[in-house]
Design goal:
By secondary structure, the chain is an alpha/beta fold. It has one domain (about 5-250): Rossmann fold (3-Layer(aba) Sandwich), CATH 3.40.50. About 35% of the residues lie in helices and about 25% in strands. The protein has a 6-stranded mixed sheet, sandwiched between helices. It has a 4-stranded antiparallel sheet with strand order 2-1-4-5, covered by helices on one side. A hairpin with a 2-residue loop joins strand 4 and strand 5 (about 65-70). The longest helix has 14 residues, at about 110-125. The N and C termini lie far apart (about 45 Å). The mean pLDDT is about 95. The protein binds adenosine-5'-triphosphate (ATP) and magnesium ion. Adenosine-5'-triphosphate (ATP) binds near residues 15 and 86. Magnesium ion (MG) binds near residues 45 and 46.
Length: about 260
Amino acid sequence: MHKPILETESLTFAYHDGKPVLDSVTLSILHGDSVGIIGPNGAGKSTLLMHYNGILRGEGVVRVDGTEVSKATLKEIRRKVGWVAQDSNDQLFMPTLFDDVAFGPLNMGLGEEEVRARVREALELVGMTEFAGRPPHHLSGGEKKSAAIATVLSMRPEVILMDEPTNDLDHASRRRLIEFLKGLDVTKVIASHDLEMIADLCRRVVLLDKGRVVADGAAMEILSDEGLLSAHRLEAPLSVVLGRLRRESPDESGQVTVEQ
Ligand SMILES: Nc1ncnc2c1ncn2[C@@H]1O[C@H](COP(=O)(O)OP(=O)(O)OP(=O)(O)O)[C@@H](O)[C@H]1O
Ligand SMILES: [Mg+2]
């Protein structure tokens, strides 16, 4: 895990209105790592993710596995980097879910049998097998999210960028996704307000605010820094706070003692 797979150097970006959204972001993400991108609404998290597979292009350099993202390398980049959009409607556009999940593998030039096998596998992994024939726009919000994840898994990317993957998921689907991601041996970059999920899944956390990296380090360190989090409109996840309390003040039975 020592080689970078995703890199940005002085990445600066503004949408058409010219307001800066990413301000000289320099980040290096290592092969096999799991990185949470956190920050308040409008911090630039989704915008940053969209640069890693070339959906957006700003000033500065973005590299994937040493290759600079450009028009010429886009196809190669998208094979390696799968992106789960914050809004699943941005990702589902075919007449049936089967077609949507098959779209990526077909584009990669895989044979029919292989495509079918990949679709089956991806739908099974997200528990959506029975929905294969349904039009995606007739799915519920949570079903759409699972469907969008399947469209990325079927391509077996080396890096998965996920934008709010647990949004709209019920408790059981969320847990299933977290456990599945834990076992998935790829580089994961997850932008989310679900800091419990980030605490559970990520080794490293990057805190963005107003398009700048304001903190970057071990997940547990950043997620337990209540002052830092509240200065950026966030709150420490309960599991992290409880873990710290337990370490700081265990009584003889190992129970947490909280002073009133
Ligand atoms: N298509 C767009 N055109 C103009 N401005 C945009 C566009 N998309 C996003 N923005 C602006 O860019 C900034 C960053 O948006 P972005 O979606 O990257 O934030 P975010 O950190 O993902 O927020 P959230 O937590 O709400 O998902 C915001 O101020 C937003 O209003
Ligand atoms: Mg976002």
